[in-house]
Amino acid sequence: MTDRIEGARSAFHEFGMPDADDLVVKSRLIRFVAEEIRRRELTQKDAGALLGLDQPNVSALLNEKLSRFSVQKLMRLVGRLGFKVSIHVEGGGIAFDVPYQEAA
Question: Where is each HTH cro/C1-type domain found (predicted)?
Answer without folding.
Answer: 33-88
